């Protein structure tokens, strides 16, 4: 009988452990040995749930853990916690690990290597950025560190730098915990994953819950007290006192290991893979999750999008392929949903600036509608913005801001984008209608009709 | 200047008045005269809202009226209420109307005729079926008649015959009004628009709200009292006392006018049209709404599906074409959503029996999931059933039963069916994910993964 193949996984969260679990289901331990290394205290958790843990909606961190290290081990995966992989030797097909508790180092050979090293929050090179009380929100360890500091109590002053998804969600969580919260954002409006006209609706909702929103403002430094803890966030015009600072400036791929080993990286620093999630040019090295670039099917380019749902899909694809099956990850269309207070925020496809950067000529329309038939109790207003290509009428993007029932409507547009539908085709979509669920024209169809008219009016 | 063309519309609800309104926006009164005839007391209303009116959720009937006769007239449409069209003279290009109040009759010539005569509830040829207290629920006049009878008070005994959408919604409405409700259904389970295994979930919810559900039971007669009002519903084994009876046996196209004129009808009795909604073989006769058959894109056949959302689309297409534009209605995939108590019920595509009848070989899977991340407050269970074609893996149908957040998820499948996606392709769909909106694998994707595995296992 042939010796078992060795699968080594670097990173014990969504992509890595999905890959390990899928491969384990397909191949017995006698055929495939699986070893996984995680430098943190937690495995297979939902980082997206951290704001809800901090906000008090969720009992953390246990509730955020999909599968504990022990459960993985019981399923035949040798998961080593608090163990960092410090070096990758591609030619020798081995990685070097370091036990963070004992300091012990060891080399491990592999037949298949999975890089699932995730992402790290952007930390701008500002004075005071490494002070105590300044937190990224990327891992459960980060969440625990926040709760162990001033953010764990209430009545403090919190400043969130950056008003993207994480910034906005964290601002709400900190407000609900009883802190006084200021969000400072460089762009014109919060949520620069939306066009500014839609972002303005998010600003209104944030202000409505008592969050101070400061836009078009650059943070220049962080002030630190004699004890080494942050005391204020400094901008060009003003100083904002702060007991705790949260970084919501987005994340970058954590690919230092890959970079040192000479693996191919894209513009964002993310690993470049083929459709089977194999690192380009490397037959037996795979990568997935927040450390890779994904293909954007609408823009026709690869980009870095850190999202747990992609990471899980990557892991499934990698696990299937290592396990002897066949699967691919064809790409994304850029869907994201979020929530601040009772405002639901969603987008898919391209923003105006992204469409222009892709070389596309387009029309953009905005339509107001409601979540249910206007006469049905609980009908809430909703704004849908839609972009379509001039000439062809192909759907390019949708943004939705509204209350209950707004956010997940973006999925219709996500599928339509994947199928490269025109907005005219969309006007005929057979979407579910009944008064408790939708007006007789679903809000997405109202926008599609308006977009189709705009395409006709714009000509070729 | 040429004389204005004459557009005549028969039926003043969704399809007819959408057609009139769209044509009006495209053509001035000097170019196109529009006359519409409606035999009832209401125009442009939401018949789908009637159960909610009766149940007390909606102030009816006014709230259910999208546009009053007066508003239509102010927009330049000569809408004649309580006026029935009694004859269609195709060769002479004219229709005969009868004013139901005065009895006055008149002929009206047309250049374009729009037939939007709707549907009528099925009334089986049973003894007592025409007794007082036996109601269909198709028009606002029907709703008003119900409220004017015993159903308008509370504490009576109500029997609903048929447990389709209308039957189930009416059963809930009557229960909420304080009546004791029995539903009698011929099939194995309620909601025969679902497979029986999914219908069983609906039965549980109905029973949970105190509705008596009697299945596999045929109604044989209705008992009538000396005053001519219904007193009981008789089945083979038993008699159910009833102060009011609601017919929930579905509807048939109301095409007696068209039939008498020799226009082409399908198996269901619905008018047959081309893709522009022109009655086949008749250059200047158009038809839409509940009186036509629509093309089923999944089954590859035409069928009768009475739904307000289709009627509105038909009207838009007809109005655009008469108004000098160009539009088509490519067909439907069979989407429907409904609600009983807090149970959301949705379907699109084909049921098992429909797929078999279409000559398709398929696999069927059922997956349990939740509406939100399992740890997020308010996450509710959901069952998704999915059918896929053997060999190709093409999606054939989806049924969903669950609580809040379940129903509209069917839209993802509706778009995927329209785009003829495979279930394997669906596993990669970039649907919106965040803990308040979805588990990291959306319930539809969970079902798609299971279906893709079943397709692989089934082979060619």
Automatic annotation (TrEMBL), chains A, B:
The keyword Oxidoreductase applies. Keywords: FAD, Flavoprotein, Oxidoreductase, Redox-active center. Residues 338-440 form the Pyridine nucleotide-disulphide oxidoreductase dimerisation domain. InterPro entries: FAD-bd_OxRdtase, FAD/NAD-bd_sf, FAD/NAD-binding_dom, FAD/NAD-linked_Rdtase_dimer_sf, Pyr_nucl-diS_OxRdtase_dimer. SUPFAM superfamilies: FAD/NAD(P)-binding domain, FAD/NAD-linked reductases, dimerisation (C-terminal) domain. Pfam families: Pyr_redox_2, Pyr_redox_dim. Gene3D superfamilies: FAD/NAD(P)-binding domain (3.50.50.60). Residues 6-313 form the FAD/NAD(P)-binding domain. Its cofactor is FAD. Belongs to the class-III pyridine nucleotide-disulfide oxidoreductase family. This is FAD-dependent oxidoreductase.
């Amino acid at each position: 009988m042939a010796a078992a193949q060795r699968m080594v996984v670097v990173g014990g969260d969504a992509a890595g452990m999905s890959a390990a679990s899928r491969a384990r289901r397909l191949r017995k331990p006698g055929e495939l040995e699986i070893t996984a290394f995680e430098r943190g205290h937690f495995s297979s958790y939902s980082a997206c749930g951290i704001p809800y843990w901090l906000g008090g909606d969720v009992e953390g961190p246990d509730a955020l853990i999909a599968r504990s290290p022990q459960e993985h081990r019981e399923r035949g995966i040798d998961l080593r916690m608090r163990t960092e992989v410090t070096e990758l030797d591609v030619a020798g097909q081995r990685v070097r690990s370091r036990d963070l508790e004992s300091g012990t180092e060891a080399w491990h050979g592999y037949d298949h290597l999975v890089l699932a090293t995730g992402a790290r929050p952007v930390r701008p090179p500002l004075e005071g950025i490494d002070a105590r009380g300044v937190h990224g929100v990327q891992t459960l360890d980060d969440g625990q560190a926040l709760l162990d500091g001033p953010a764990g109590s209430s009545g403090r002053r919190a400043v969130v730098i950056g008003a993207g998804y994480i910034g906005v969600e964290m601002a709400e969580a900190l407000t609900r915990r009883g802190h006084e919260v200021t969000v400072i954002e460089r762009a014109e409006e919060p949520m620069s994953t939306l066009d500014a006209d839609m972002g303005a609706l998010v600003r209104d909702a944030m202000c409505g819950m008592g969050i101070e929103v400061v836009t078009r403002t650059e943070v220049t430094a962080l002030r630190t007290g004699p004890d080494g803890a942050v005391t204020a966030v400094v901008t060009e015009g003003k100083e904002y006192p702060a007991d705790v600072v949260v970084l919501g400036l987005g994340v970058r791929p954590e690919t230092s290991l890959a970079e040192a080993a000479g693996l191919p990286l894209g513009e964002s620093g993310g690993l470049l893979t083929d459709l089977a999630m194999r690192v380009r040019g490397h037959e037996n090295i795979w990568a997935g999750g927040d450390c890779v670039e994904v293909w954007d099917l609408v823009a026709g380019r690869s980009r870095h999008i850190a999202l747990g749902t992609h990471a899980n899909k990557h892991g499934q694809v990698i696990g299937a392929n290592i396990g002897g099956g066949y699967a691919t990850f064809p790409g994304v269309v850029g869907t994201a949903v979020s929530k601040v207070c009772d405002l639901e925020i969603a987008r898919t496809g391209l923003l105006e600036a992204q469409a222009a950067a892709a070389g596309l000529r387009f029309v953009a329309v905005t339509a107001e509608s409601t979540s249910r038939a206007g006469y049905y109790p609980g009908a809430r207003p909703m704004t849908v913005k839609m972009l379509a290509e001039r000439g062809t009428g192909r759907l390019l993007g949708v943004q939705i801001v509204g209350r209950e029932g707004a956010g997940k409507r973006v999925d219709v547009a996500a599928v339509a984008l994947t199928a490269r539908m025109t907005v005219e085709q969309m006007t005929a979509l057979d979407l579910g209608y009944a008064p408790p669920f939708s007006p007789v024209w679903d809000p997405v169809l109202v926008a599609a009709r308006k977009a189709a008219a705009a395409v006709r009016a714009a000509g070729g």
